[in-house]
Specification:
Blueprint (H helix, E strand, L loop, with lengths): L3 H12 L9 E5 L3 H11 L21 H11 L6 H11 L7 E5 L6 H18 L3 H6 L4 E4 L3 H15 L10 E4 L5 H10 L5 E4 L1 H10 L9 E5 L1 H5 L1 H17 L4 E6 L4 H11 L3 E5 L14 E6 L6 H14 L7 E5 L3 H14 L7 E4 L5 H13 L3 E5 L14 E5 L5 H8 L10 E7 L3 H9 L6 E4 L4 H38 L16 H10 L3 H4 L6 H13 L13 H9 L5 H25 L1
Parallel strand pairs: 2-7, 2-8, 3-5, 3-6, 4-5, 6-7, 9-14, 9-15, 10-12, 10-13, 11-12, 13-14
Antiparallel strand pairs: 1-15
The structure holds adenosine-5'-triphosphate (ATP).
Length: 607
């Protein structure tokens, strides 16, 4: 049985790395780890610092005065972060402005400002050299590419703040194009009304526009990859290389900037193809440095099986919420591997954390873009809340005051682990990372270790039977609801297909009405050579369908004393695909047999 006192101790660990726990039996503790990292950090001299850079924005020579005033007045930044100190003087100096660069700096250290200032200033300078008529054309001069829609919107917002004090007649127009929104409306807004100077885009949507009208991109001179390693990895490689080759046909890129918190050796090789030889590689971390933040201590919770991930998560969330207050809000992201898992965990957490009366917000690519944006806004504006997320918000997304990042199971790679943890501890704030792994995922644990990612505390979670019972009950509720929804979905799809068929627009053969996803119905129907009853109905339910099938087989006039024609396979289909319970299937057989008997008797009488 779990002792709540010791569990509380673990949870205190989430706030203060020095605490200990026995409820989660401690497998290994590394008390000195933070101090060791701190001293290591201090000992390693930052790489490639030529001379002491200015510490404040107003010390950067050549920084456009409007941009400087926007930073101070609007963003209220005075001191530069380390990456800004390294980048801005270099990319704004007369001798080196317009140079290409590959930049690596830790998560949450202000990379967006570091690349957007040179981009805005570069575009501003190019536009100010143009004649009025040329300026009015407003085709993109700079392209900023981001792997996710959320990040693209965020980059645009930050960039607009950086330009806010530039007089409107001189101000570069910044717009965003992303997948998941109506192309027609977006095209009108971005390319027609007022045009665009700096276009922030996700790769797929950018490629659509490039294919459609390449000439539109004939003025592009500056290109930026934010989260460059992600854009250059396999997931985006094809799109990115097509974008590059299509752009090459219409323009010459003069400046290329690539930024990320993680830049592996492989990425450097690929990046060189785009950057050419003449670029500067700036890292604010040394290669021996710890890749995640000092301000984000990390804990590991070990469970036995993959299916055990959920319970420690609920347990930890509850304890944190018990301790949360107005002065000490709890704002957490729970990262999961797939959108399906997000739906599942969201349902369970919504019910299991109901008493706390806080928003439990889902976000994944399974939601529409409008719902994604709405949900992210809701999370941003709430003090205490839990975001249940897939990797759509793993990189770049900047939400203030996230106190905890939970990762359930292995991440898509060690880089992705680093980016996920990086959602907390941003801009100098503190945070906590918690990874829940099963013993089956030990290879991921080893990969983290080989990247020098160490945990301040490692625990083995001991299950709480009471909580296990509570979780199973909610899971059962979810299954029931899911089955109900699935039936409804299948049937509404069937109805839509039937309507289309009736309007004569789609299919000829009645059996084709039933697509693969509802092949259960078509299988059952074709088995009995009957369909008319099904398709002639307007308001279908699974019962109706079954009844029709049952009624239909009556006309076959078989001897009811024969073995029922429904075989085990059909019975399995009925159960699994139509999500019928055993009881439903039994009723189906009973009903079917009764009708067959009636029909048979009727036929006999007619004879
Ligand atoms: N000089 C500064 N002073 C104070 N805050 C800053 C400064 N520069 C940027 N910030 C803020 O720091 C936060 C993190 O910045 P940003 O999102 O650019 O980080 P990042 O390095 O791109 O992180 P990631 O690697 O996760 O994408 C933002 O809220 C940003 O407004």
């Amino acid at each position: 049985m779990i002792s709540s006192v010791t569990l509380r101790a673990l949870l205190r660990t989430a706030r203060s790395p020095a605490a200990s726990s026995t409820q989660f039996s401690r497998a290994r503790a590394v008390p000195q780890i933070i101090r060791r990292y701190a001293s290591m950090d201090a000992a390693v001299a930052p790489v490639q610092i030529e001379e002491k850079p200015p510490a404040r924005f107003d010390g950067v020579s050549n920084l456009n005065n409007y941009i400087l005033r926007s930073i101070i007045k609007n963003l209220k930044f005075k001191e530069m972060t380390e990456v800004q100190q390294r980048i801005l003087p270099f990319l704004l100096a007369d001798e080196t402005k317009g140079n290409s660069a590959l930049v690596q700096a830790k998560t949450g250290t202000g990379k967006t400002v570091a690349f957007m200032i040179p981009v805005i200033q570069g575009v501003y300078d190019i536009l100010s050299e143009c004649e009025d008529a040329e300026r009015r054309i407003r085709k993109p001069v700079a392209l900023v590419i981001s792997p996710t829609r959320e990040l693209a919107y965020q980059i645009s917002d930050e960039a607009k703040k950086l330009c806010s004090i530039i007089p409107s007649s001189e101000r570069p127009v910044i717009k965003t194009v992303v997948g998941g929104v109506s192309r027609r409306m977006e095209e009108q807004k971005v390319f027609r009304s007022g045009g665009v100077d700096i276009l922030v885009a996700t790769p797929g949507r950018l490629l659509d526009y490039l294919k459609e009208d390449p000439k539109r991109f004939g003025n592009v001179q500056i290109k930026v990859y934010d989260e460059a390693d992600r854009l250059l990895d396999q997931g985006f490689a094809r799109e990115i290389s097509e974008i590059r080759s299509r752009l090459e046909r219409v323009t010459k890129i003069k400046q290329m900037l690539m930024f990320s918190a993680t830049v592996g050796q492989g990425v450097v090789g690929i990046a060189e193809q785009e950057l050419g030889k003449n670029y500067k590689f700036i890292r604010t971390t040394s290669k021996d440095d710890v890749p995640t933040h000092l301000s984000v201590p990390q804990s590991l919770v070990l469970v036995d099986k993959l299916s055990d991930h959920f319970e420690p998560l609920v347990s930890l969330l509850r304890r944190q919420l018990d301790e949360a207050s107005i002065d000490q809000p709890f704002k957490a992201v729970v990262f999961l591997r797939t959108g399906k898992e997000v739906d599942h965990y969201h349902f369970l957490l919504y019910h299991l954390l109901r008493n706390y009366d806080i928003p439990i917000i889902p976000i994944s690519s399974r939601l529409s873009q409008a719902a994604r944006s709405r949900n992210l806004e809701k999370f941003k504006s709430s003090a205490t809340s839990v975001l249940v997320a897939s990797d759509v918000v793993a990189r770049g997304v900047d939400v203030k005051n996230i106190t905890h990042v939970f990762q359930v199971g292995r991440a898509m790679g060690t880089e992705q682990y680093i980016h996920r943890v990086g959602r907390t501890g941003r801009a100098g704030k503190s945070g906590q990372g918690i990874l829940i792994l099963s013993k089956k995922e030990s290879d991921f644990y080893k990969s983290l270790k080989s990247m020098q990612i160490n945990f301040n505390d490692e625990y083995t979670y001991i299950s709480d039977p009471e909580l296990t019972g509570e979780i199973s009950e909610v899971a059962r509720k979810e299954l029931d609801l899911w089955q109900k929804r699935r039936r409804e979905d299948e049937l509404s799809l069937l109805e839509q297909k039937y309507d289309a068929h009736k309007r004569g627009k789609m299919l000829r053969k009645p059996t084709e009405i039933f697509s693969k996803d509802i092949d259960v119905v078509s299988t059952v129907i074709s088995q009995f050579g009957f369909y008319r009853g099904v398709i002639s109905k307007r308001h279908l339910s699974s019962r109706d369908i079954l009844r029709d099938i049952v009624a239909g087989i009556g006309h076959l006039g078989l001897d009811p004393n024969e073995k029922p024609a429904i075989d085990r396979q059909t019975s399995a289909i009925l159960k699994n695909k139509l999500a019928l319970s055993d009881k439903d299937v039994r009723e189906f057989f009973v009903e079917r047999m009764a009708i067959r008997k009636d029909k048979w008797a009727q036929n006999k009488r007619l004879e």
